[in-house]
């Protein structure tokens, strides 16, 4: 249909353009709100962490926590949850006798929530939660470590530029420290290993156990596996300065299938 009155046509055109502009404003506004929620609530404290090292919060399920505890059953010594979220794994491990139980978490809201839950459970003075970057804390005295992270982080191969890589070497020569804290660039590192495995291998003491939820460590051989699907949890032991390669069945766990022996008839 043709428009007879040019004034009317102009007004209609203006209204239409205004509509498109409004749409654009709404889109920009909601993008801003989404970014603000992400930056202030979900991922605060992550500004200095490279994007590919960032992991969103997804709390462990009741089943996953049970599996972690079953793989740490009978053990003692310090427990650390790397990326402790609302502290549920730390609290549960403390109740099972692992002392001290410590959580490292970058999101201050989650650190606060974890402290609140610990206080409500009457454990305020016995567990601790620190707002710290898991890549920058030392694990030298940790005999029990739990990691519920993302595959991008667990399997990450190379350190990001400007971000600490972990240093191997004799004690006192920066072993286990972020390389960036050392006076000279170190010539020793474990570049062949994904970053998380490298950190764990260099820093953990003999006899330590790592439990990894949802995603396995890419190159280590687990000593035990519990659960199915997303509830699956893998256990790895540190023996002779590295991950134990032998599959040893743990109580109430699925033993890891071993490769067929080529010598066997
Ligand atoms: C998948 S959630 C697991 C939370 C908790 N471990 C659980 O299982 O209930 C991962 C957590 O790691 C935290 N996180 C990610 N990168 C971190 C870093 N570099 N340092 C400390 N915490 C980190 C996130 O904020 C998030 O809360």
From TrEMBL:
SUPFAM superfamilies per record: S-adenosyl-L-methionine-dependent methyltransferases
Keywords tagged on the record: Membrane, Methyltransferase, S-adenosyl-L-methionine, Transferase, Transmembrane, Transmembrane helix
Residue intervals passing through the bilayer: 23-42
Database matches in InterPro entries: FAM173A/B, SAM-dependent_MTases_sf
Gene Ontology CC terms: mitochondrion
GO molecular function: protein-lysine N-methyltransferase activity
Single GO biological process annotation from the record: methylation
Region described as Disordered: 243-265
Keyword Methyltransferase: yes
PANTHER family referenced in this protein's UniProt entry, alphabetically: ADENINE NUCLEOTIDE TRANSLOCASE LYSINE N-METHYLTRANSFERASE (PTHR13610:SF5), METHYLTRANSFERASE DOMAIN-CONTAINING PROTEIN (PTHR13610)
Annotated family: Belongs to the ANT/ATPSC lysine N-methyltransferase family.
Name this protein carries in UniProt: Adenine nucleotide translocase lysine methyltransferase
Source organism of this protein record: Rhinolophus ferrumequinum
Taxonomic path: Eukaryota, Metazoa, Chordata, Craniata, Vertebrata
């Amino acid at each position: 249909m043709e428009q007879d009155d040019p004034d009317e046509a102009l007004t209609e055109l203006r209204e239409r353009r205004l509509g498109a502009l409004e749409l654009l404003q709404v889109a920009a506004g909601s993008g801003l709100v989404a970014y603000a929620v992400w930056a202030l609530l979900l991922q605060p404290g992550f500004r200095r962490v490279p994007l590919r090292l960032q992991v969103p919060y997804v709390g462990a399920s009741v089943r996953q926590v049970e599996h972690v505890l079953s793989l740490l059953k009978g053990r003692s010594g310090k427990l650390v949850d790397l990326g402790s979220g609302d502290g549920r794994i730390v609290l549960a491990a403390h109740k099972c006798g692992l002392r001290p139980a410590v959580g490292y978490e970058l999101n201050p809201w989650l650190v606060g929530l974890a402290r609140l839950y610990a206080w409500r459970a009457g454990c305020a003075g016995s567990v601790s939660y620190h707002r710290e970057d898991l890549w920058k804390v030392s694990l030298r005295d940790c005999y029990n470590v739990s990691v519920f992270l993302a595959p991008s982080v667990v399997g990450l191969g190379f350190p990001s530029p400007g971000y600490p890589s972990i240093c191997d070497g004799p004690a006192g020569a920066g072993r286990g420290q972020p390389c960036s804290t050392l006076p000279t660039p170190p010539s020793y590192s474990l570049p062949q290993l994904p970053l998380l495995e490298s950190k764990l291998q260099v820093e953990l003491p003999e006899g330590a156990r790592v439990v990894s939820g949802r995603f396995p460590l890419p190159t280590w051989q687990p000593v035990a596996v519990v659960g199915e699907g997303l509830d699956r949890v893998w256990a790895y032991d540190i023996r002779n300065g590295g991950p134990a390669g032998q599959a040893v069945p743990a109580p109430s766990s699925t033993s890891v299938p071993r490769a067929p022996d080529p010598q066997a008839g």
